[in-house]
Amino acid sequence: MKDTCKPLLVPCFDLNTSAPFVFSRADASESSSFDFELWQVCRATTATPGLFKPFGLQSVDGKTSCCAVDGGLVMNNPTAAAVTHVLHNKRDFPSVNGVEDLLVLSLGNGSSTAGNLRRRRNGECSASSIVSIALDGVAETVDQMMGNAFCWNRTDYIRIQVRLQIAIHEKPRLFLFSSIDFFHCSTQTGRGVFCFGIRCN
């Protein structure tokens, strides 16, 4: 990862530590213990449970290991992680002193809960609806936090989120890699950080 042409953050969930794990070019540049092969990082963040087995990977020096599943499970909206990374990464972003120096465009991968919650006959939410509520709820919470951090200045921060419409009579479908949560942050110097997670809808 240390040789990527732009600063990069990629989230996953590590089953070994039961915690989120974020791969970054900044960490990879500082220590080979946090440098991973890029193809393995991409495979790790897309290891969606039920579709792919957890993906085990090791840093290039073999000192750090991770048993990864889909990063979208814990970081469905990675904007906050990316903004925090930029604010604390003076090597790649020396001119950034605060959010007033950032221009953020966050593109969501589609909300599935708006008007689409499936209920059982007794009126309770189905298990799939609860998962959707959790994922969409986290993404919306991050959007609220970022909006507050940027004082709701829509010239410096904007999130575009599509509302997925599913007819009530339709069965749920699985679209593999149908959407990408993509974040781009620009500074006045034109540098940017890219952060993404691929989620199945």
TrEMBL record:
GO terms for biological process: lipid catabolic process. Its EC number is 3.1.1.-. Keywords: Hydrolase, Lipid degradation, Lipid metabolism. Lipolytic acyl hydrolase (LAH). The keyword Hydrolase applies. The lineage of its organism: Eukaryota, Viridiplantae, Streptophyta, Embryophyta, Tracheophyta. GO terms for molecular function: hydrolase activity. It comes from the Eukaryota. This is Patatin. The keyword Cytoplasm does not apply. A motif (DGA/G) lies at residues 70-72. Residues 1-83 form the PNPLA domain. Belongs to the patatin family. Transmembrane segments: none annotated. The nitrogen atoms of the two glycine residues in the GGXR motif define the oxyanion hole, and stabilize the oxyanion that forms during the nucleophilic attack by the catalytic serine during substrate cleavage. InterPro entries: Acyl_Trfase/lysoPLipase (IPR016035), PNPLA_dom (IPR002641).
